[in-house]
Amino acid sequence: MTNHPRPGTVCLLHWHGEPPYGLTALGIPADRVSEAEEKAASAWAGQALPATWQGADPALRRGLVAAVRPVPATGLWHMADDRPDTDESRARRDCLRALAGEWPEAEPLTAGQADRLPGLTALLRLTALVCRMPPEVWLDAEEDLLDIYDTYSVAGLPDDPP
Q: Under a CB-based contact definition with an 8 Å cutoff, are residues 9 and 61 in contact?
């Protein structure tokens, strides 16, 4: 699925530096970042991230999804690179290039800006964890974290041409 976030969207980025490498971007309306952070932080209420989404208790999944639904997140983009001969730096470059092509209007926040958004950072990391779940796992809507986003894309980078 192709997304095009609304103009004035900022995005937080999360890089998963272990194979399969992956980049997850969370889109937030630029004029609602403070509100989004406040709602995301209150949704966590000190809870720790589960080790896996698939292995988390269904009640925990439902509770977290319900708690983060009010966060004004406009889009999600996740790209995995599981090509066997790709190193981390090339995978990161390729994922960033794909993100720029997919969301040219989005403005990534700097690491310093993201550090001041612990609630949204936790939501982004949890979303990245959900995106790493096997695609054949289906969850009920109230347990599906990806269901909170207006638009989302979860895909992989194509293999290099022969």
A: no
In angstroms, what CA-CA distances link 11 with 14, 56, 92, 127? 10, 27, 16, 13
Asked if residues 124 and 77 have their Cβ atoms less than 8 Å apart, the reply is no
Mean of all residue pLDDT scores within the chain:
87
pLDDT band at 5 (very low <50, low <70, confident <90, very high): low
Global pTM value: 0.88
pLDDT band at residue 37 using 50, 70 and 90 as cut-offs? very high
Asked whether the predicted pLDDT for residue 105 surpasses 90, the reply is no
- Which residues, including other chains, have CB under 8 Å from residue 29's CB and lie 6 or more apart? 6, 8, 9, 10, 36, 72, 74
The structure tokens 């599906």 sit at 144
CB of 75 within 8 A of CB of 149?
yes
**Which among 158, 154, 135, 160 has a CA at the least distance from the CA of 26?**
154
Alpha-carbon span 57 to 67, nearest angstrom: 15
